[in-house]
DNA sequence: TCGACCATGTAAGATGTTACATGATTGC
DNA sequence: GCAATCATGTAACATCTTACATGGTCGA
């Protein structure tokens, strides 16, 4: 029940399905992922329900863009969702389920290579978020991030969490690798 | 595509649908949640595919228990899943999407109460995991957690991550509350 | 006797994934 | 000419959620 709400939130500003896909990949993937094949039908349904409107715009390359934006009704529906309070218990991280069961693997080397992959991926994501933050810093001057307000403040707080979490994951993966090596010695 | 695999992993030991629901609530909810209405059909499908077998057992209270366990074929399918490497990009945390868009809320007090709820919930979960760990410690003696091997080692590493993450979330939520208060003063 | 817990499920509808299908533009 | 990127979708299938349905045991 959340993707339509997330789309609605993004459509405070006009955007096409393709634009939204890029936003997911670039910045939202830390807490949500969605593919084009899910985004297009969801936008159509929002439009059918009167929560967004759309129009065509020419594109520089490729076919015409269908651009969507919140309607007043959509804005209210979105705010209702925010005011429901935090939607907890939506955790879904398959890699942690795998980590939990790693003792059942056949290949004796699997746990090590698994955690190495985790560590490398998390490190790359932490760096990607840090790079995104550097771009922001350039736009906002030396008082960044203390001078942020409104939308930018809340976006930054979420990004900040992403960086903290990914760094924690990297440290954890390294500690796990050390423990695996330690347990093998016994 | 992950719930069937998680069920298979749990069914290294015999368990009923109800037992599995309890395991999700107790210890797996940190990284995955599943309801009974999802578990029962999933178990039936695994049985139809020959990945688990089932038998009836009398229950002390209530109706007979249908107990399931991995077959050899199920065990192999599970190991294949482990060896696919970490399934990344399965993140789905609705509350972070809400946090990202909090500037769009109507009620000026919404961000504060939202982050307070997050902080309190995370603190409760961190404490719950710590309590679970204390039970383990009693079972494993003073060398815990360094004396863990096999399944228990990997379970503990995942629990350890849960505790670290929840503590980080609590600190983050408190920092966010301070930032919200700071931004309101301006 | 009432609520909490044990224990099973089904049905309908919403949501998400995978594979397929199309076609223009830009840079190498 | 080929791959990447821009840009749109549909169809079939798998998965998940919400609501409904049933009934026994235990303790307050």
TrEMBL record, chains A, B:
SUPFAM superfamilies the record matches: Winged helix' DNA-binding domain
- The Transcription regulator PadR C-terminal domain, residue ranges: 111-180
Domain Transcription regulator PadR N-terminal, by residue range, is 8-79
Source organism, top-level taxon: Bacteria
Q: Where are the transmembrane segments?
A: none
InterPro entries of this UniProt entry?
Tscrpt_reg_PadR_C, Tscrpt_reg_PadR_N, WH-like_DNA-bd_sf, WH_DNA-bd_sf
Q: What is this protein called?
A: PadR family transcriptional regulator
Species of origin: Parvularcula marina
Q: What is the lineage of its organism?
A: Bacteria, Pseudomonadati, Pseudomonadota, Alphaproteobacteria, Parvularculales
């Amino acid at each position: 029940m959340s993707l339509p709400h997330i789309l609605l939130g993004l459509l405070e500003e006009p955007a096409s399905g393709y634009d939204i896909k890029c936003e997911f990949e670039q910045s939202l993937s830390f807490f949500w992922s969605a593919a084009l094949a899910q985004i297009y039908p969801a936008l159509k349904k929002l439009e059918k329900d009167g929560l967004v409107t759309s129009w065509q715009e020419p594109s520089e390359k490729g076919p015409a863009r269908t651009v969507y934006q919140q309607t007043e009704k959509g804005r209210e529906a979105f705010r209702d969702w925010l005011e429901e309070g935090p939607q907890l218990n939506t955790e879904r991280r398959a890699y942690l389920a795998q980590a939990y069961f790693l003792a059942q693997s056949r290949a004796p080397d699997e746990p090590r290579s698994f955690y190495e992959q985790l560590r490398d991926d998390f490190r790359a994501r932490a760096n990607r978020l840090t790079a995104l933050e550097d771009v922001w810093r350039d736009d906002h001057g030396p008082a960044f991030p203390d001078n942020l307000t409104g939308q930018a403040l809340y976006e930054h707080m979420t990004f900040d969490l992403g960086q903290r979490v990914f760094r924690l994951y990297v440290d954890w993966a390294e500690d796990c690798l050390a423990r695996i090596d330690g347990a093998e010695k016994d």
